[in-house]
Design a protein that fits this description.
The protein contains 7 helices and 27 strands. By secondary structure, it is of the alpha+beta class. Among the domains are: 149 residues, no CATH class; 122 residues, Glutaredoxin, CATH 3.40.30. β15 and β16 form a beta hairpin.
Length: 426
């Protein structure tokens, strides 16, 4: 039998062993080709921007699909529903309506992002918000435990601004993590405006690790255009280096899947993130000097096309010049990005070449006429060389600054044009 002293010594050794093993899982050397990083989910957006969108309110029928149970005393109930993982909806659509695209879909997502043998039920794949009246007050109720029974959830009165007394409301849901379906938690912010629910997911994941004794913190979110709880379009950024924490991330410091982080002296590709965000994988790249891409420091991808005036142009036409590609759009606001474009065009036309990219002609023609816009315009719709590199998202407002050597030297949202261009030309 072990003495009390030996028992304590054994417990201490076991404790230290657990700590060493725990730490070693997050300590790497540059000899490691793949960094597999376990993440922790946290409340809020971290250093990333917040995204809000609208959810329409619908009547709750007596034979509703979710068999929703309503709390006593809540009248005129309506419900807003958001899909947790849109891949589940897509898979069902391809199976039932259009099987021709199913092989392509599965080659992209199976088995890391979706397992067709482990699909959550439709009722498990939604966040649900109930709006109604109780007494003289309008109220919002969130199905926090995802049991479709609003009787056990908090009833929150809505104030005159459409807001409720809750910054982050927890919600549970089921999601595939690459191996199995798991129960997960997130946080949302909701409010009412003009008869619709304004909805925002407020979560990010982060991981801390060392590489060659250099300490890093990385944060990631599920970014646009999907903006759901599955990380189909992740954004990632280094938020701390050797204890020096950043207080913000610029767009040029925000990386997409497939782009490269510089960790000390080495580059690692952001290879993947699990469907639920619980781990991130980075793969070492020995040389990025010949890499083509839209991240800062890389060779700008080629493009070619015809302007709205019928002139043929290509990236090579701008060799030995600074070129600013400006994405403009009527998405979210019919004129805002066009007004920003007009301002930066008037101020910087004498210093750099400027090319504006829009998705289609409709809103562009209207704003050229109403705002007296000048310059060179090109349409991305139907132009794969632009769509694949510089405008994958219809609502894109990103600007790319290309230097005379053909490298991307900055990228920023059009609303930040004054500060961004001043860094290079003033």
């Amino acid at each position: 039998m072990l003495s009390k002293f030996n028992l304590l010594r054994f417990a201490l050794i076991l404790f230290l062993g657990i700590q060493v093993n725990h730490l070693s899982a997050y300590q790497f050397t540059s000899d490691t080709d793949t960094l597999l990083l376990k993440t922790k989910k946290e409340k809020g957006q971290g250093l990333f921007p917040a995204f809000q969108w609208s959810l329409p309110l619908k009547d709750i029928s007596k034979d509703n699909d979710f068999n929703i149970l309503l709390p006593e005393g809540v009248l005129n109930p309506k419900i807003a529903i958001d899909i947790v993982d849109t891949k589940m909806w897509s898979y069902q659509y391809f199976m039932e309506e259009d099987s021709s695209d199913l092989p392509k879909f599965l080659s992209k997502y199976y088995p890391a992002k979706i397992d067709t043998a482990q699909l959550p039920l439709e009722r498990e794949n939604h966040i649900k918000v109930l709006v109604g009246t109780k007494g003289t007050e309008q109220v919002i109720i969130v199905d926090e435990n995802n049991n479709h029974d609003f009787r056990d959830d908090q009833v929150r009165p809505v104030n005159e601004n459409g807001e409720i007394d809750a910054a982050h409301i927890p919600c549970t849901y089921k999601i595939y993590n690459g191996k199995e379906l798991v129960l997960a938690t997130t946080w949302i912010v909701v409010k009412l405006k003009d008869g619709v629910v304004k909805y925002q997911i407020t979560q990010h994941v982060k991981t801390n690790f060392t590489l060659d004794n250099q300490a890093f913190e990385i944060q990631a979110i599920s970014g646009p255009p999907s903006l759901r709880l599955a990380f189909d379009d992740p954004w990632l950024g280094i938020t701390s280096y050797n204890g020096r924490e950043k207080d913000s991330l610029t767009l040029s410091e925000t990386l997409y899947k497939g782009e490269y982080l510089k960790l000390g002296e080495f580059y690692y590709q952001f290879a993947d993130i699990s469907n639920d965000g619980s781990w991130i994988s980075l793969i070492k790249e020995t040389d990025v000097s010949d890499k083509i891409g839209t991240q800062v420091g890389f060779i700008a991808p080629n493009f070619a096309g015809v302007t709205t005036e019928g002139d043929r142009i290509a990236l090579q036409d701008y060799k030995k010049k600074y070129l600013l590609l400006v994405n403009i759009t009527a998405c979210w606001s019919p004129i805002m990005s066009y007004e920003y474009y007009k301002e930066l065009y008037d101020q910087y036309l004498s210093k750099i070449e400027i090319l504006a990219i829009d998705e289609s002609l409709g809103a562009l023609k209207t704003n050229i006429r109403n705002l007296y816009l000048e310059g060179t315009f090109i349409i991305s719709k139907g132009n794969p060389t632009l769509k694949s590199s510089y405008r994958e998202d219809y609502c894109c407002r990103t600007c790319y600054l290309i230097d005379p050597s053909g490298h991307i030297v900055d990228k920023f949202e059009i609303s930040d044009w004054k500060q961004a261009l001043a860094r290079h030309f003033e």
